[in-house]
Amino acid sequence: MEITQLWRYPVKSMIGEPVASAELNDLGVEGDRTWAARDLERGGIRGAKKIGPLMRLAATDVGDGQVEITLPDGSTVLTSDPDVNERVSAALGHRVQLERLRPADDADHYRRGAPDEDDMMTELRGVFGRLDDEPLPDLSTFPPELMEFESPPGTYYDAFPLMVMTQQSLTALQEALPESRIDVRRFRPSIVIDADHVRATTNGHPEFDWAGRSAQLGPALIEFTMACPRCIMITRQVTESIPQDRALLRHVVRNLDQNVGVYASITTPGTIRLGDELTLL
């Protein structure tokens, strides 16, 4: 098995950038999710679970801690520009303020904003995009701090530093949903693996079998923690050619036990590159 794609997401929930190499450190991919949007209307750091149009903006690391954001109309703005918040807010139709990652001990920075719904089950079904007759993910499997914080303090990722999926999963989804546009940008992986010769026990998704195992990935060691439960984000419009698609989430919930891809943590840091082998340990 080998790496075929590496992705870095300089701004939480925006389209990321493919890279040829990635430095894995204790927190994840270096340069990944170093910025996020604070909701000025409802409070808290928010991603595309709540502010869907974030997925239509693209972010590119341009060095010196700055990020260039491409808006849906094709124009660009730097995080250092004085009007960046106004222009991003206008593109989203929602008032936000871009904020850089802060230390883990700045707890208030990461604390969740007010929910949109008074009823918690209604709130969770909205976040996860579940119909009334569909199950919610088992929330006890997530890091416990996520009950209070939008992300593990000191990070802007949702639960774990890496999300890994296989090229075979993308193919299986397209075969199952021929009318859908299956694009890697919907799923926001850190790493895509070609596992062509690996037998899959679950509908063509071999990575589901890796949860609980460790792997050598180039010079780095990673530990697969759990399959990745999917939320409303995979249904969002990304570009004009990648439209909103609710059918995709229906398939994932009903046929894939709610999951696409597998979360992972880093046990030994190192630089990984396209073409590096992945060896299960």
Keywords:
281 residues; alpha+beta; M1 Pyruvate Kinase, Domain 3; three-stranded antiparallel beta sheet; 16% helix; globular
Mind explaining what this structure looks like?
With 281 residues, the protein is α+β, with helices and mostly antiparallel strands. It has a single domain, classed as M1 Pyruvate Kinase, Domain 3, CATH 2.40.33.20. Helices cover 16% and strands 29% of the residues. It is built from six helices and 17 strands. It has an eight-stranded mixed sheet with strand order 2-1-12-11-15-14-13-17. A three-stranded antiparallel sheet has the order 4-3-16, with no helix packed on it. Strands 6-5-10 form a three-stranded antiparallel sheet, covered by helices on one side. The radius of gyration is 18 Å and the shape is globular.
User: How many distinct folded domains?
Assistant: 1
Q: Any idea of the CATH topology?
A: M1 Pyruvate Kinase, Domain 3
Output the structural class: alpha+beta
Radius of gyration based on Cα positions: 18 Å
Summarize the biggest pleated sheet: 8 strands, mixed
In short:
This protein is of the alpha+beta class. It has six helices and 17 strands. Strand 8 (66-70) and strand 9 (76-78) form a beta hairpin.
Structural topology:
Blueprint: E1 2-8, E2 17-18, E3 21-25, E4 28-29, E5 35-39, E6 45-46, E7 58-63, E8 66-70, E9 76-78, H1 84-92, E10 96-100, H2 107-110, H3 120-128, E11 162-166, H4 167-176, H5 184-187, E12 191-194, E13 214-217, E14 220-229, H6 246-255, E15 259-268, E16 270-273, E17 278-280
